[in-house]
Amino acid sequence: MSRRKRALGFLLLALIAAAAAAAIADGYGSRIADRYGPLRPVVVVATDLPRGRPIRPADVAAGLSVRRVPERFVPSGALASPAEALGLAPEASLSAGSYLIAAQLSVPRHGRPAARRLSGGRRPVEISVSGADALLSMGPAAPGTRVDVVITGEPGPLGRGRTYIAAAAVPLLALRQGVEGPGGTAAATLGLTREQALRLIAADSFARKVTLLPRQ
User: Fold this and answer.
1) Cβ distance 204 to 188 under 8 Å?
2) Which among 13, 67, 90, 109 would be 20 to 30 A from 127, CA to CA?
3) Splitting the chain (216 residues) into consecutive groups of 10 residues, what average pLDDT does each group show?
4) Within 10 Å of residue 85's Cβ, how many Cβ atoms?
5) Which domains does the chain have, with CATH numbers?
């Protein structure tokens, strides 16, 4: 037998083996679905989440993941999307690897009065911002205060990062100094819609700076 024929023979055997493996996998998957139900998305805690701290866009991006689990094994009240946890705080510390259940989360205590003033599908979401010393010097955010959330990205090929408004005229519910003290980052609680929160989650992965610009 020539070398070419042997190569063709090996290729044919490989294709037959691949087809057989795929058929076995499909059959196994069908049996699992028949026995335990279809697969459903479930939010899983990827990194430990402390008790009482509101879940921020950065936590959603890095601390939560989604797995597909047979319906029979999905706990009652399990979240299907990480965005559902935005702005809520764990009632107890959550360990990595556990499912995220709605009953484990609640509106943060400092955000409850403000949450009653929100409308239009908004919910309180805490984000880290830079350059907030001027706003902090004005004291607690007054009811009705609105700000633009401005994102500055990392420098590109031309040496400058893109700066744009990621969320316009959103309610500023609370603002407190970060652990670094004056000149460092601050924690801002904003009333965001789901779409605005998702934009900030996406922006947080490449943003160099997040700034609040007060509305006149």
Assistant:
1) no
2) 67
3) 58 62 56 70 90 85 88 82 84 88 76 56 85 74 81 74 87 77 75 88 77 84
4) 23
5) 39-106 (3.90.1210.10), 109-214 (no CATH)
